[in-house]
Specification:
The protein has about 150 residues and is α/β, with parallel strands linked by helices. It has five helices and eight strands, in the order E-H-E-H-E-H-E-H-E-E-E-H-E.
Length: about 150
């Protein structure tokens, strides 16, 4: 079993209310069971929702030294942390060891995220959920790694 960002499987849960359907990820269903999750929804955010970015990175957010803000400046950190923790519960429940997550997402980004200025500038870092899963031994990949 592999945990997977639900949006990559065509579920309309991204911040715009659409999906990020990815044909390479769908092909994995031929030989794998993919468990869809949307950490932002699990954390209590609606769909659609305002675009959010991390000030810092996911590890800093988990340690209380960073935050997640929306484009209008609203602090939504608590929702991202809750969603990460709920996702980790699913990982532990099913004994999942790997995840394929949506690159650049403030929840799911693995290796690259937006810099928190809403200028579309990418920086090295992980989203909140990706960081928590990595801390707990889960191998996190992006759809770009497939």
């Amino acid at each position: 079993m592999i945990l997977c960002s639900a949006c990559l499987l065509g579920i309309e849960c991204n911040y715009r209310g659409g999906s990020n359907l990815n044909s390479r990820v769908l092909k994995l269903l031929d030989k794998n069971i993919l468990i869809p999750v949307c950490p932002e929804q699990l954390g209590g955010l609606p769909t659609p929702r305002e675009n959010a970015e991390i000030i810092g990175d996911g590890y800093m957010v988990l340690d209380g030294r960073g935050k997640v803000i929306t484009f209008s400046g609203k602090d939504v950190t608590q929702y991202f942390v809750k969603g990460a923790k709920e996702t980790l519960k699913i990982v532990k429940l099913y004994g999942i060891g790997s995840a394929i997550f949506k690159q650049y997402s403030p929840s799911c980004g693995s290796g690259k995220i937006y810099d928190g200025t809403f200028s579309k500038r990418l920086v090295s870092g992980d989203g909140v959920t990706a960081a928590l899963l990595k801390r707990n031994g889960v191998k996190v990949f992006s759809e770009e790694d497939i």
